[in-house]
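Case study 2.
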Amino acid sequence: MSFFVSRFPRRKALPMDETLLKTPLADEHVALGARMVPFAGWYMPVQYKEGILAEHKYTREHVSLFDICHMGEFTAAGPGAAEALDAALARSVADQKDGVCRYNFLLNESGGVIDDLIVYRMGAEEFFIVVNAARIAVDFAELRKRLPASVKLENLSDSMAKFDLQGPDSTAVLTSLGLDVAALPKYYHWGKFELFGLDMLISRTGYTGELGFELYFDAAHAVDVWRKLLACPGVKPAGLGARDTLRLEMGYPLYGDEMDESTTPVEAGFGAILKLDKSDRKFVGSDALRSVPPKKHLRGLVLEGRRAAHTGTPVLLNGTQAGTITSGTFAPSLGCAVAMAYFDASAEIPADAEFEVELHRAVVKAKLAPLPFWTHGTANPKK
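Prediction:
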């Protein structure tokens, strides 16, 4: 459907390009009838036979399984690991408790985002770090420079599988496989479990806004685990298309669209969690964040109709460009098109301003909307 996200090629399944990387499940996706596309240097499924709309809806209402093996995983352990990571990353690591996962940022000296990542505290001086696929090499090299020799940094990306089980029924799936519901991790916590005879790290995290878990284990068993999970009653596969529409409805940023090395986390809307005004903690980029006012602000837009806005599309106010779309989609849960866009931080824009966005030779109206667009997700039990 033409109103879905424009980042994926609108074409039938592509033959395998030998320059692209493959997850252990590439052949499984093809066998399931997935439409395969290049994504961040990987050969990935954008959708299966039922399509993005059906996969999106099913995740919101039931449970879907996503192949996220393209993501990167590091470990950092040894004397001084907590203190060094605390100085290397934008959010505090030193006060992070064992068993907790924390969304974080690797910044440059200007405060720009090298990558957004999740840090798992495994012990007093032991950490597990999940990074974006396209930034694995960059992140590893940068962290190696910032961490002392006493801290052993390992890249486990090639040997580790990562599956996302997402949707309100995800807990029921795991308990049907023998896991104790009381032992499952709380929101943004992790635990170690045995599933299908394998040791797994399971965290209650995800990118959809729904109750869900991320499973990490030895990649040698990826195909077997994939098949066994899909054999569970009610579990269906979902591709990158639904993952993108789900995350956009939640207003979650995507590296390369909403964040990059020229954009700060404050500009992307994460100033509050950095606690810059409540602490004098020093980290790479902290001086710039405290001394340089944000140049832009990320805002949500609701567009008339169903057609998605392309990345880079100008947002006009009274005929003059006021902002730029970073990513957009038709939001299946809302029945309209939504987008995120950056606006000049110094501009005075009324809350009820009416914008114009040119889409495929047609001009549509748009209005500001608070993030997240979708407010009925089941991910966080406090909401």
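The chain has three domains: 1-70+150-294, 72-149, 295-369.
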